[in-house]
Amino acid sequence: MKETVKIVINGELDLHTFNPKEIGSLVPEYLKLCREAGIKEVRIVHGKGTGTLRRSVHSILKRLDIVKFYKIAGHESGHWGATLVYLR
User: How many Å apart are CA 5 and CA 24, to the nearest integer?
Assistant: First the structure.
């Protein structure tokens, strides 16, 4: 049985607790909910690792119309282990 995980819509999505196969639907849905809540800046934590998850997240972000732009986080926000997303 698949366990349901409740996610707080606060502008930060930590992907460490999710299966990488889930991010294709999780990231767009989370960003949509953030936008509906009036949150326009979102931090997605994907970890540093090999960069595979980061590349997957960026590939998803490129396809979303609600994304104004995104960039790797600065040193104070997780550096290359996180991506900052700015929504329209």
Answer: 16
